[in-house]
Amino acid sequence: MEKLKRAVKEIAYARDQAKLSGFHRSLVPFLSFASSLYGVVLSLRRSLYCSGFFSRHRLPVPVISVGNLTWGGNGKTPMVEFIAKCLADYGISPLILTRFGLGSSNSEVKSGWFSTFGRVSQVSRIGSILAAFYFASGYAGGDEAKMLQRHLLGGPVKVGIGANRMATANLFFEKYGYVDCRGSKLFERTYLDQKVGSHISLEKIGAAILDDGMQHWSLCRDLEIVMINGLMLWGNCKLFPLGPLREPLMALKRADVAVVHHADLVLEQKLKDIELVIQEIKSLPVFYTRMAPSCFFEVSNINTKMHLGAVHNAVVLCVSAIGSSDAFVQGMEKMGPIYVDRFDFSDHHSFQTKDIHMMRERLRQLEDKFGYKPIVIVTEKDYDRDPQILKHLHPFQVLVLCSEMQIIARKGCNEHHLKLLLKELLEVKLSGAD
């Protein structure tokens, strides 16, 4: 399965299809057929929602959707966390709604997708295969939810996990209550103005953030933010699974804000090209973000914080199963290790015993080559996916890199401007809400 995942991704982002291996070329006809079928299912599903055949539900609080058009590595989870903290600073208790997490098993989610594809296409075998490709390409995972819960523990932000996000939201509304801000100023009480009345309770939910929500049609949203991976754009511009697109690029017309992630690792001309493509589809405010490393902690002791200089002049093995491993490795290279090796897995891959054996073999090779023990570096997502299995790399030291998303000041736009824009767009949407 891991070989299939890699092959699908390599085909989607191949610069020259003629240079693909025989194995890759043998997959292209099937992927092309599956991509066409996926497009039909996607179009039918969208039509059924737009016609009202499938119901769209509206929550009693404002809904901010953070989504993307391609595979992982777009920065959705860091942006969700950024917005949640921003709302909390303004005295609003947000509820994050995410599909996958601690209580959702892959078998349950796969079962739902197999059923959906089987019903819509009425070709259960093809539908099941297409659903398998969906999961082979790294769409499902609970690591983000675990990371959000760990980062936001003890604050006013709540994390709701479940495939039926309307039902999940209702459970939280019943437990905590909600503040209906429609028809009023959402941000009338801010952390800068503590004299405003205290009728907004941090216990009651004042807004919802839809994680990975762009393709979640059943829930209405007041603000649509689309995340774009600056390092890995739209590949061959084909629909999944032949390409990386979950929807055609014209879906950008539904967005209110576009955010280019990993912009610090992208050449200026490429950033201009990205902005041009966006503006040709829709005139959108475009912001740029980066992941800023802050510290390390040891897998064996999450409470130990280590300075980024811990890897200076060290031999490092970067191990990751994330959507944008290149960004992770490039960030590590900037911290001054004398040598950086890498072990990449597909997005959301759960490390197995055989993977640990392969890592240990690579580590022994590096130790023989350089004369001292290398350090293993993983991302927070990799740690949260399974905190225990990485301990089996002992006696090699395993560090977890902590990073936070930052807004890059560009063309007069910075973090302050993004917060102001979010406020303005939400208040405009809510003043005209049904």
TrEMBL record:
<keyword id="KW-0067">ATP-binding</keyword>
<keyword id="KW-0808">Transferase</keyword>
<keyword id="KW-0441">Lipid A biosynthesis</keyword>
<protein>
    <recommendedName>
        <fullName>tetraacyldisaccharide 4'-kinase</fullName>
        <ecNumber>2.7.1.130</ecNumber>
    </recommendedName>
</protein>
<keyword id="KW-0547">Nucleotide-binding</keyword>
<dbReference type="Pfam" id="PF02606">
    <property type="entry name" value="LpxK"/>
</dbReference>
<dbReference type="InterPro" id="IPR003758">
    <property type="entry name" value="LpxK"/>
</dbReference>
<dbReference type="GO" id="GO:0005524">
    <property type="term" value="F:ATP binding"/>
</dbReference>
<dbReference type="GO" id="GO:0009245">
    <property type="term" value="P:lipid A biosynthetic process"/>
</dbReference>
<keyword id="KW-0443">Lipid metabolism</keyword>
<comment type="pathway">
    <text>Glycolipid biosynthesis; lipid IV(A) biosynthesis; lipid IV(A) from (3R)-3-hydroxytetradecanoyl-[acyl-carrier-protein] and UDP-N-acetyl-alpha-D-glucosamine: step 6/6.</text>
</comment>
<keyword id="KW-1133">Transmembrane helix</keyword>
<feature type="transmembrane region" description="Helical">
    <location>
        <begin position="27"/>
        <end position="44"/>
    </location>
</feature>
<keyword id="KW-0418">Kinase</keyword>
<dbReference type="GO" id="GO:2001289">
    <property type="term" value="P:lipid X metabolic process"/>
</dbReference>
<dbReference type="GO" id="GO:0009029">
    <property type="term" value="F:lipid-A 4'-kinase activity"/>
</dbReference>
<dbReference type="GO" id="GO:0016020">
    <property type="term" value="C:membrane"/>
</dbReference>
<keyword id="KW-0812">Transmembrane</keyword>
<keyword id="KW-0472">Membrane</keyword>
<dbReference type="GO" id="GO:0005739">
    <property type="term" value="C:mitochondrion"/>
</dbReference>
<keyword id="KW-0444">Lipid biosynthesis</keyword>
